[in-house]
Amino acid sequence: MEVTESWYLVLGALLFIIGGTGLLIRRNPLVMLMCVELMLNGVNLTFVAFSRMFSDIRGQTVVFFVLVVAAAEVVVGLGLVVAILRRQPEATADDLNVLKG
Amino acid sequence: MLELVWLIPAFPLLGFLVLLAGGRVLGEPRAGWLATLMSAGSFAATLVVFAGMLGEDAQDREFQQVLFDWLPVGNLTVEAGFLVDPLSITMALFVTGVGSLIHLYSVGYMHNDPKYSKFFVYLNLFLFSMLMLVLGNNLVITFLGWEGVGVCSYFLISFWHTRESAAVAGKKAFVTNRVGDWGFMLAVFLIWGSLHTVTYTEINAAAGALTNTTATAISLMLLIAAAGKSAQLPLYVWLPDAMEGPTPVSAMVHAATMVTSGIYLLVRMNYVLSDDALLIIAIVGAATALFAALVAVAQHDIKRVLAYSTVSQLGYMFLAIGSGAYVAAIFHVITHAFFKALLFLGSGSVIHGMHDEQDMRYMGALRKVMPITGATFIVGWLAIAGVPPFSGFWSKDEILLAAWEQPDIGPVLWAVGLVTALLTAYYMSRQVFLVFYGEARWNDPRPEGVEGPESEVHPHESPWTMWAPLAVLAIAAVAGGALNLPVVGDWLVLEHFLEPVFAHPHHFTSGTTTKVVLAVIAVAAGLLGIAFAVQVWLRRKIDSSRLEPKFLTEAMYVDATYAKVAGGPGTKGFDLAATFDKVVVDGAVDGTGRLVRKVGELIQPAQSGFVRQYAIGVAIGGIAVVVWLLSGTV
Amino acid sequence: MVDTIVFIVAAVICLSGAFGVILARNPVHAALMLVMTLFGIAVQFVALEAHFLAAVQVIVYAGAIVVLFLFVIMLLGIDVSQSLEIGAMQSQKIAAFGFSGAGLAILGFLVNRVDNAATGRPPVGGAINDRTTNVSQLAGTLFDDYVYAFELTSVLLVIAVIGAVVLARKPTRAQVEAGGESEGSDA
Predict the structure, then answer these.
(1) Closest to B623 (Cβ–Cβ): which among C102, C109, C117?
(2) Which residue of A has its CA nearest to B615?
(3) CATH top-level class for C1-85?
(4) A98 falls within a domain
(5) Are residues B594 and B537 in the same domain?
(6) How many domains does chain B have?
(7) Residues B360, B362, B367, CA angle at the centre, nearest 5°?
(8) A26, part of any domain
(9) Residues B415-452: pLDDT tens digits?
(10) Are residues B323 and B289 in the same domain?
(11) Domain containing A26 — which CATH number?
């Protein structure tokens, strides 16, 4: 059985779905951030697969930028988590409803 | 040199901007001197332009300078442009000339006022607006200046706005002037609607095509505008109250310059004025002249006498316009500017010396302590009383002659003017005698309820910045008549200078005998008035109490009637408007707000504050987008 | 044959790691499971001949970001993080199942049609060739075509760093005294 690019695409999509599901069911803000990383990696895999599929290096370039954005997101996200949990040690994502309309 | 016309309003504008930004920093007296310098610069620029104009032939003395297209709207284009012709330059000359003198006077008069620099901000802005009004090459620019002088007038009337009467007077001037402005706007709309232009030269060229009805309608709207600004019946009520402002303002805005802008407007639009409208203008003018002179007879406030006198003299000018004698009107505008500014500044000097006392009953014998003020004031008195050879005689005589030559009701108009002249001579003599002659009543006890001065009054002569303008204006008031002397053959300088501006130059038809007889009668009337005043007020031979009936002191109850009408049925109308505003207008506004609030309450639960619910929203949206994209490929 | 084995092994690692992340009760375990997934993806990158990205994946993700996660968990104290277990509201669970179901449905649809859904487009300008290495080709696009975007990412990173510093700073004494009563006046 030959490995085609579509296999990678399916794997990326599965990672994305798992990450999204985790984001919806977990309450721990840290784990939610990890789930976001999972989703981003699923997308990254898809980009690289397409890059190979179309012989286009720019797919890999995009992954590079996604990496940077992910790093920035994690830095700020974790900063927020630290600030929030320092104030409310028991907080979950559902407790942070100050902005409730 | 005509191209320098933009400099004329640029100087006061610059002064206004500088003073607005840094007036407080400059402080007293530098702010005042700067403003005076700018005004003088404007006067110099006007002289240069005037000299340039004299270099041209009489028929070529019309010059337009367009700075830029100000309002290009559809097929209406309003230019920001200047029109320099004999009429506008004459107005600009005396506006800047008298204005500069009054600036100089204010430097001394406003001494120690806490809002010293702000006063000069307004004064320079006023001068700028007035010059825009006079020099604009179309009705819209003139309207800009018209509103500009108006707003400065309100600022300056209520300059001491902590005094309630001043604030109320400012409001009154504003409301009354709005009526006039309404007339102005309608006139502009009518002209635009019928001639498709607002530029003076084009209006003049096309005015012949107007039907008599349209022309009359426009003229009457212009008359309402002019009656508002120039304080004619029935819109004069604001001017006497405007005396709440500082005296230099009364002299400049409410005697010499702004109130003559109505005259200017009518003269400028002389191509449009129809014969029917001219008759109405003449009647309005004559009625105002007589009415105001009657009221002036019984006033006690030194400035109110002069205010009613101004209304009366403006009535003369309207009478002149109505008689078609535009030159006479402008001539009287100029001489009136000289002697009335002189009288006002003189009264300001008196008030200054008397420590803010304005009631003539508590003055007297000031001639000895204020010699310069007294002498110049007497010159102004003789000028306004129509005693030859002072300037007032010449201009007033011309108006009376023009009225006499009117068909049908000419003699009636003339008779009204003559009576007014008699009354003018009387009330001005009364004022002079009360203030400068007789015995000193400075510290007489006041009747119950009237506040007297806090300490004993010791009148003194004013500083040189105040009496120097008086002296200059006194010379002008004596010699102003030389502009248009009818006696010596061709010595009608102003007449020939202004002639190209008019559609139908006015020519007197009476023979020399008639002219002389009329002049002698006018002088006799003036002398009679003076003689009567001498008997009553100087020699005290006639009991004066019956000469000041309450009916006249209260200005024939016109103000009271206005107040009643506005306060009675008028208030109901206002209430109705207020209800409309509250229910319909506010209802629409509030309804919009309530609608938004209701919608917000409806969708508020969506903002649960649960981050993960928001994530579901994003997920659903994302899936929907993907499904939609894929649906195209099926 | 080797390709297939590599793919299947790496895919299993990835998926089990992913499930581990969302199912682990202990956040530390979740973080370690995340490392597993990231390694699996790095292997896939190698298989796809994206060697540079594979290296970056290991260094940046596994080396830096996951370490950052672990660091925060340790910083906040294991008690705090341990008390957070899997738990979700009923509606939340239904939504999650709906999401994964819909995602899987779309995936199945795409697998069916993948040949004509996303192929047939020739490379536009960034064609991979065999003459130069993967790194130099990547650098070529990154520092040439996308140089402004690349510079902007550096700005983004600086902003993120400053933001993190501001967020993580302890409130000063003055702020504590001023905002002692009110919730959320500083953070």
Answers:
(1) C102
(2) A24
(3) mainly alpha
(4) no
(5) no
(6) 2
(7) 75
(8) yes
(9) 999 999 999 999 999 888 888 888 877 777 777 666 66
(10) yes
(11) 1.10.287.3510
Instruction: Report the DSSP pairing between strands B63-73 and B76-84.
Output: antiparallel
Which domain range does residue A28 map to?
A: 5-91
Residues of B with CB under 8 A from a CB of C: 612-613, 616, 619-620, 623, 626-627, 630, 633
Low-confidence ranges of chain A (pLDDT < 70): 1, 90, 99, 101
* Residue-level pLDDT at C182: 46
CB C90 within 8 A of CB A30: no
Q: What percent of chain C has pLDDT over 70?
A: 72
User: A93 to chain B: which residues are within 8 Å by CB?
Assistant: 610-612
Q: Can you say whether residue B540 is alpha, beta or left, with left for phi > 0 and alpha for psi between -120 and 50 degrees?
A: left
Among B547, B578, B596, give the residue marking a domain's end: B547
Nearest to A97 among B605, B608, B619 (CB): B608
Q: Which residues pair with B199 in a beta bridge?
A: B138
| Contact between A24 and B612 using a beta-carbon 8 Å cutoff | yes
Looking at chain C, which residues constitute the CATH 1.20.120.1200 domain(s)? 1-85
Q: How far is CA C85 from CA A38, B239, B612, C161, in A?
A: 19, 86, 16, 30
> Is A29 part of a structural domain of the chain?
yes
- What is the distance between the alpha carbons of residues A12 and B625, in angstroms, rounded to a whole number? 19
Give residue B612's domain range: 568-631
Q: How many domains does chain A have?
A: 1
Mark whether B541 and B574 lie in a shared domain: no
Using the Cβ of C67 and the Cβ atoms of chain B, whether some distance falls under 8 Å is answered with: no
Dihedral angle computed from the Cα positions of residues B297, B300, B302 and B303, in that order, rounded to the nearest 10 degrees: -80
B351 and B418 fall within a common domain: yes
Round to whole Å and give the CA distance between B373 and C155. Answer: 77
Half-sphere exposure of B626 (CA within 13 A, CB side): 17
User: Does residue A13 sit within a domain?
Assistant: yes
Strand, coil or helix: B69:
strand
Same domain, B533 and B624: no
Question: Residue C55: how many CB atoms within 10 A of its CB?
Answer: 14
**At which of B492, B514, B547 does a domain end?**
B547
How far is it, in rounded angstroms, from Cα B190 to Cα B216? 11
* B56: its two tokens: 């041209």
